[in-house]
Amino acid sequence: QPVVEVVDIAKTYAGAGGVPALDGVSVAFARGTFCAVMGPSGSGKSTLLHCAAGLDRPDRGDVRLGGEDIGRLKEPALTRARRRRVGFVFQSYNLMDSLTVWQNVLLPRKLAGDRPDKAWAREVIARVGLSGREHDRPGQLSGGQRQRVALARALAARPEVIFADEPTGALDLSTGREVLTLLREAVDDFGTSVVMVTHDPASAAWADRVVFLADGRIVSELGYPTSEQIA
Ligand code: ADP
Ligand code: ADP
User: Fold this and answer.
1) Residues in domain ABC transporter (predicted)?
2) Which of 7, 36, 37, 173 could bond to 207 as cystine, CB 3.0-4.6 Å?
3) pLDDT, tens digit, 9 for 90 and up, residues 200-215
4) In angstroms, rounded to a whole number, what is the distance separating the alpha carbons of residues 54 and 70?
């Protein structure tokens, strides 16, 4: 069973002149894999990610998250499902600046009403190379360190899937590679599923599979791509 599946979803934003952002997209993301979603700016990548993650609702079509049909859920059940099943890593980190690294990492489980797993939180903070920085606040950290906090925060809640929207978009090349390495390790070592939106072929090369969008439709898919195929 896929960790995330969308079936024939479509969405047109108000004020977009009737031009659909998504126009009949079906895709299933396999559990324990790293999948990249690529495509030009405006092709619908973020809209697909937001719909798949339960952050936004498509106009039609089904969204299944961990086997659960989230289209049928009303708030606050949708929020609960998202908090229980999904982790997020955004280009702009989206950390709470007033909280410490430790508090940020423990926050999702708190919000979900679960008891924090402190041993696991310590392990993921170590894994992203931030042991000893638990009492720092995001403002004291570099961009790469902040993104590693965001990744630790996502991992700490043991989500079924991590959605990453241009996770290296604000980082320099080598710092970006460190973050991609950690996402890859999360899949290989922890069995996490990752769905990553990127416009960067070098970033997509870390994924097991690449789905290409154009004008709100899937135009091609590659499994285990070679760099020639995605160039
Ligand atoms: P991508 O992530 O590939 O750049 P998006 O999903 O952000 O693409 O956008 C797809 C299309 O939907 C674009 O034409 C964009 O301008 C439009 N769009 C995205 N968000 C909104 C919004 N909130 N309101 C109106 N149009 C939007
Ligand atoms: P370069 O242009 O230096 O080859 P890349 O971004 O293609 O840069 O790759 C950077 C490093 O990441 C290389 O050492 C490459 O072997 C490694 N790499 C690329 N894709 C993957 C992947 N899917 N899994 C593991 N390592 C990868």
Assistant:
1) 4-231
2) 36
3) 999 999 999 999 999 9
4) 7
Q: Cis before residue 76, ω within 30 degrees of 0?
A: yes
- Pocket-forming residues, ligand 2, beta carbon under 6 Å: 177, 184, 202, 205-206
Q: How confident is the model at residue 223 (pLDDT cuts 50, 70, 90)?
A: confident
**How many residues appear in the chain?**
231
Rounded to 10°, the helix 143-156/173-190 angle is 10
For the CA atoms of 40, 166, 54, 186, what is the dihedral angle to 10 degrees?
130
Residue 225 has pLDDT above 50, yes or no: no
Mutation pick for ligand 2 pocket among 168, 206, 209 (CB with most ligand atoms within 8 Å): 206
**Beta-carbon neighbour count of residue 3 at 10 Å?**
25
> What's the pLDDT band for 112 if we cut at 50, 70, 90?
confident
Q: Which residue from 94, 82, 76, 73 is spatially nearest to 54, judged by alpha carbons?
A: 82
CA of 224 relative to ligand 2 center, distance in Å: 13
Burial label, 128 (beta-carbon count in 10 A; 0-12, 13-18, 19+)? buried
User: CB of 47 closer than 6 A to ligand 1?
Assistant: yes
Nearest CA to ligand 1 atom 5: 44
- The first and second tokens of residue 83, run together, are 């908090």
